[in-house]
């Protein structure tokens, strides 16, 4: 009877381990595909075309390497795992930030685009010809995006669809206003030059207001950086003043729990500040 019960328990444990391993493998494969596809799309938005096939192994190797190195140095498994997890997602965070910065630069270039386009239309040039001349003198990312619009037109894509594709690549409210105005004006035959000048004035006023808000929130961003760095700096200072007490944080379960709590509160603080300020801190 005992043998049968032991055999049943071993079989149940084996089935549970196999099921857990299967679910973990399927989840990791889905996450791997999603990360690879999102990274490829974000890199293509930056006009960087590289093979992302080896992205996942590279992220895993970097994360494992950082975790192993920190574990050998600090002898803290929890701290090493936390930092390894951060190193795993940090490249994608930096890439997403680069994409947002590029979109912001594109929005800042829109008023000059509208003003140049309005002048070219008043001089008698067509919309496609005016865009072609603007692309030659513009700087990235405006020249890249408008150049792609013109190439799509040469491939037989309608201007309406090309402008919609531009909005999908640069999903901002300013780009939506510009593309919608160009599409409506080309269909209705309205005076496009006057409309572009008015939209240019509105966008400049809006950007001025946004910069004013950004300046007013600079103090909040600085406070976020100071408060976020304070626990780390304090830990480094205490490691030099009282290394024996700090060693307890890495070598005992209570100390590791304290470090995990600090790390969780740090992440929560960053999230809350980003939600309050609606900016990247």
Q: What does it look like?
A:
This protein has helices spanning 2-45, 55-74, 77-122, 127-137, 142-154, 159-169, 173-188, 192-216, 218-241, 243-251, 253-277. With 281 residues, the chain is mainly α. The protein folds into three domains: 1-50; 102-216, Type II secretion system (T2SS), domain F (Receptor-associated Protein); 217-281. The radius of gyration is 27 Å and the shape is elongated.
Describe the protein's topology.
Blueprint: H1 2-45, H2 55-74, H3 77-122, H4 127-137, H5 142-154, H6 159-169, H7 173-188, H8 192-216, H9 218-241, H10 243-251, H11 253-277
Cα-to-Cα separation, first versus last residue: 63 Å
CATH class of the largest domain: Mainly Alpha
Record field, number of beta strands: 0
Helix tally?
11
Average the pLDDT over all residues and give the rounded result. 78
Write out the CATH superfamily name of the largest domain.
Type II secretion system (T2SS), domain F
Q: State the share of residues found in helices, binned by percent.
A: over 70%
Query: What is CATH's topology name of the largest domain?
Result: Receptor-associated Protein
The geometry reads as: elongated
- The ordered string of helix (H) and strand (E) elements is HHHHHHHHHHH
**Major sheet details:** none
Overall SS class: mainly alpha
Rg, alpha carbons = 27 Å
**Which range does the strand content fall in?**
under 5%
Q: Based on the coordinates given, report the CATH architecture of the largest domain.
A: Up-down Bundle
Q: pLDDT below 50 for ≥5 consecutive residues: which ranges?
A: none
Counted up, domains total 3
């Amino acid at each position: 009877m005992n043998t049968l019960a032991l055999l049943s328990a071993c079989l149940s444990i084996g089935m549970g381990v196999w099921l857990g391993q299967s679910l973990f493998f399927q989840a990791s494969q889905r996450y791997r595909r999603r990360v690879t596809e999102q990274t490829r799309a974000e890199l293509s938005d930056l006009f960087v075309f590289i093979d992302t096939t080896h992205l996942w192994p590279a992220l895993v190797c970097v994360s494992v390497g950082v975790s192993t190195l920190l574990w050998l140095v600090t002898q803290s498994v929890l701290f090493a795992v936390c930092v390894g997890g951060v190193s795993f997602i940090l490249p994608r965070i930096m890439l997403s930030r680069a994409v947002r910065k590029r979109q912001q630069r594109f929005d800042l270039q829109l008023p000059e685009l509208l003003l140049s386009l309005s002048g070219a239309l008043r001089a008698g040039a067509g919309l496609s010809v005016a865009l072609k001349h603007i692309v030659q003198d513009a700087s990235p990312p405006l020249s890249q995006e408008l150049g792609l619009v013109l190439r799509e037109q040469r491939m037989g894509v309608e201007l309406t669809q090309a402008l919609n594709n531009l909005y999908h690549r640069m999903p901002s409210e300013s780009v939506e206003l510009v593309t919608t105005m160009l599409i409506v004006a080309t269909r209705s035959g309205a005076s496009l030059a006057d409309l572009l000048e008015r939209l240019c004035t509105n966008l400049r006023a809006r950007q001025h207001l946004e910069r004013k808000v950004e300046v007013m929130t600079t103090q909040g961003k600085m406070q976020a950086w100071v408060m976020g760095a304070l626990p780390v700096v304090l830990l480094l200072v205490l490691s030099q003043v009282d290394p024996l007490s700090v060693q307890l944080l890495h070598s005992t379960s209570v100390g590791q729990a304290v470090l995990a709590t600090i790390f969780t509160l740090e992440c929560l603080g960053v999230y809350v500040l980003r939600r309050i300020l609606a900016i990247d801190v």
